[in-house]
């Protein structure tokens, strides 16, 4: 995005959602709140096909500060993890935000 003569870099986030059926969905975005709302159907046709039939979804994990390339690489790495490993990551994240 350009502002005047300067280029402003968008920061990307990697996130995980817990679906109503207990499954986990991993994605990337520049606006986590908007993206969760889209997954929950607040904007028709904007959520992922996977989450469309597994609503409601809840944000359970996120990681900030990526550029687009590193966010996509991290998303790919997370998608390759076993569910138990993802659950451990979520548990660690939840306990760390509980300490704030």
UniProtKB/TrEMBL annotation:
Stored PANTHER family: UPF0213 PROTEIN YHBQ (PTHR34477)
Protein name: Endonuclease
Family annotation (InterPro entries): GIY-YIG_endonuc (IPR000305), GIY-YIG_endonuc_sf (IPR035901), UPF0213_domain (IPR050190)
Occurrences of domain GIY-YIG (ranges): 10-88
Phylogenetic lineage: Bacteria, Pseudomonadati, Pseudomonadota, Gammaproteobacteria, Oceanospirillales
Superkingdom of source: Bacteria
Organism per entry: Marinobacterium sediminicola
UniProt record similarity statement: Belongs to the UPF0213 family.
Gene Ontology molecular function: any one: endonuclease activity
Keywords from the UniProt entry: Endonuclease, Hydrolase, Nuclease
């Amino acid at each position: 995005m350009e502002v005047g003569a300067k280029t402003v870099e968008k920061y990307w986030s990697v996130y995980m959602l817990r679906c109503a059926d207990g499954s986990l969905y991993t994605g990337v975005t520049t606006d986590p709140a908007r993206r969760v709302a889209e997954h929950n159907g607040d904007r028709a046709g904007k959520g992922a096909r996977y989450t469309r039939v597994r609503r409601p979804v809840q944000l359970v994990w996120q990681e900030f500060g990526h550029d687009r390339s590193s966010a996509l690489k991290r998303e790919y790495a997370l998608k390759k993890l076993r569910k138990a490993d993802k659950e451990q990551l979520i548990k660690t994240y939840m306990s760390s935000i509980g300490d704030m």
